[in-house]
Design goal:
This protein is mainly alpha-helical. The protein has helices at 8-13, 18-29, 40-46, 61-74, 77-90, 97-111, 117-124, 137-143, 146-158, 167-180, 185-197, 205-212, 214-225. The chain starts with 7 loop residues before the first helix and ends with a helix.
Amino acid sequence: KRHGALAVEAYRDMGLLPEALRNYLLRLGWSHGDEEIIPTAKAIEWFDLDHVGRSPSRFDMVKMTNLNAHYLREADDARLAAMVGERLRGQGMTVDAVAEDRLLRGMNGLKQRAKTLIDLAESASFYAKTRPLQFDDKAAKVLAGEGRARLAVVKAALTSAAASWSAGVLEGLVRDAASAGGTKLGDLAQPLRAALTGTTMSPPIFEVLEILGHDESIARIDDALR
C-alpha cells in the first residue's frame, strides 16, 4: 500500500488470472524451498506460518506478468476462449458462434505467446473480425509492391486444397509454390499472414488457414488482393 496499491479488480482488468495473482501474492511473503510455481491446491497443502517471511515485500509487475504467462499456457482452452470472447464483446465486437469456435480451436496456438488476457484478446481478435479487415501499418507495407503478387501465387496454390483443408496439406502446397517460384517460404507466408490477420504477427499461419476454413481464408485473400 506504500507504493500505490490498486484494488484487486484492477488486476483482473489488467488481464491477470486469479490463480496467478494468488500464487504471486503468496510468494511475496512466504516460501516453500525454491518453488516459484505454486498452484492453489499445493498452496493449501503446503502453507504454514513458520515460513512466513519478515522482510519487506515489493510488488514487481514484470514478475507478476511472467507468472501470469505461465498460468495462461496451463489454462483450459475453453475457459480462455470464453474469457477472450467476453473481452472482445466488451470492445464492441460481435462474437458469434462461428467466432467462438475459431477462438476455441485457435486458443492453444494463441496462448503460447501471451502474458495477459489483454494480450491474448488482442492477438485473437482476427478470428472474430468481420471482412474486410483493416491492415495495420506493417501489414499494409508487406502487402505493398511484390506482396500482392506473392499473395496471388499463394491463392493459386491453395485452390487445389478445398477438399483437404488441413494445416499440413496447406503448408505443403505453399512450400511447393515457393520452390517452383524460386522464393523462400517466408516470402509467401508473410503476405498471407497480413491478408488473413491484418497484422504481421500470428500463430503458425497454416494453423490459422485451417481454423478460418477455405471460404473465409480465400475471401480474406481476395479482399487483400483488391
